[in-house]
Amino acid sequence: MSRAADRLRVVLNHLEGPGHGAIGASFTSGQQNVSYHHPQALRYTFDTDLLSPEQRIAYEEDGFILIKNLVSEEDIDRFRAEFERICKREVAVPGLVVMRDVAIAKSEFMPDQKAVSKLQDFVEDPELFRYCALPEILKYVECFTGPNIMAMHTMLINKPPDAGKKTSRHPMHQDLHYFPFRPADRIVCSWTAMERVTRQNGCLVVIPGTHKGTLLEHDYPEWEGGVNKMYHGVRNYDSSLPRVHLEMEKGDTVFFHPILIHGSGMNQTQGFRKAISCHYASADCYYIDVEGTTQENIAKEVHEIAEKKYGVDDSVTFADTWAVRGRLVQGERTSL
User: Fold this and answer.
1) Cβ(155)–Cβ(276) under 8 Å?
2) What Cα–Cα distance (Å) separates residue 106 from each residue in 146, 155, 167, 271?
3) Strands (E), 166-312
4) Strand 23-25 to strand 233-234: parallel, antiparallel, or no bridges (unpaired)?
5) pLDDT tens digits, residue range 282-332?
6) What is the pLDDT of residue 222?
């Protein structure tokens, strides 16, 4: 039996003993004195000899774990330099989606243009796509997806200083809303801070334990200052549930489940707040038809964008738009 499995058995035996004891642990700057109780089964992780028993139980209970100082400063600086090249239009990336904040007039690198708030689908940029294949990232991803790993959705988020309309906020949402593939438990997001991330510049906010629920209805929130394109939010969730603010240092990385409700606050500083992320899925996952589900609205919006940008017709499905984005990063492409 592996060392990790041995430790896990000891921990679980302890938890199942008299009184059903609990493990106290603190994995993020926003968590203090959190107790993790033994779940019925370890549903969300695999034993790869990497995650400790405490980390596996924390993910079971909370739906996320934060790993400190995982990505090197050198790599992050290279990603930042490539982002700047893209903003300055020194390089053209096929399929790249450049999103701009609806209320920000001043760009970071280009004068008199709306600020680039996000790059999506940078899979054709070799430098940025290196993030998705970093061994230090993939060894953790394998704990959630298994050995056959697809990089499905890539983003570099550049949260701009808020212009006073609060449009730099990202509404509370579940990432699975955007994905027509399942099972959800074999999908995970890796989100790495490219600089210090605090409550002041709009860190991630998560509601621990919500990954145990179901995919909820999403739509644009009714914000008076406006909402950025495709920034859907959960409708009618329990806003009284306790939240955790994930303050992180450069290189820190959080891994989280696609049903976990999360978002981010507005950037109240004068600087831009950067992070890079990738959603991974097991290559054994499969596509689903979202017709008649709560995902119909996002599927329709994606199709309208694809029709306008690429001239696609109705024969192209929501699943098709994802199949062309996915890239194998480890193992075999068995299904997706």
Assistant:
1) yes
2) 43, 21, 14, 12
3) 170-173, 181-182, 187-193, 204-206, 218-219, 233-234, 244-246, 253-256, 262-264, 273-282, 286-287
4) unpaired
5) 999 999 999 999 999 999 999 888 888 778 888 899 999 999 999 999 999
6) 76
Residue listed under structure tokens 């982002």 = 83
The helix or strand, by DSSP H or E, that contains position 125, with its residue range, turns out to be: none
| Phi, psi for 246 (deg, rounded to 5) | -95, 85
| pLDDT value of residue 16 | 40
DSSP 3-state of 99: strand
User: Global pTM?
Assistant: 0.85
Taking the C-alpha atoms of residue 296 and residue 222, their distance in angstroms, rounded to an integer, is 19
Which residues have CB under 8 Å from 323's CB, separation 6+? 287, 336
Number of helices and strands in the chain (H, E)? 7, 18
DSSP assignment of 152-163 equals EEEEEEEEPPP-
Phi, psi of 308 (to 5 degrees): -70, -40
- What is the torsional sign of CA 115, 80, 176, 173? negative
Amino acid at 270: Q
Cis (ω within 30 of 0) for the bond into 183?
yes
Residue 52 · residue 7 · CB < 8 Å = yes
pLDDT digits (tens, 9 = 90+) for 18-36: 333 333 333 333 333 444 4
Strands (E), 133-228: 149-159, 170-173, 181-182, 187-193, 204-206, 218-219
Contact 255, 65 (CB under 8 A): yes
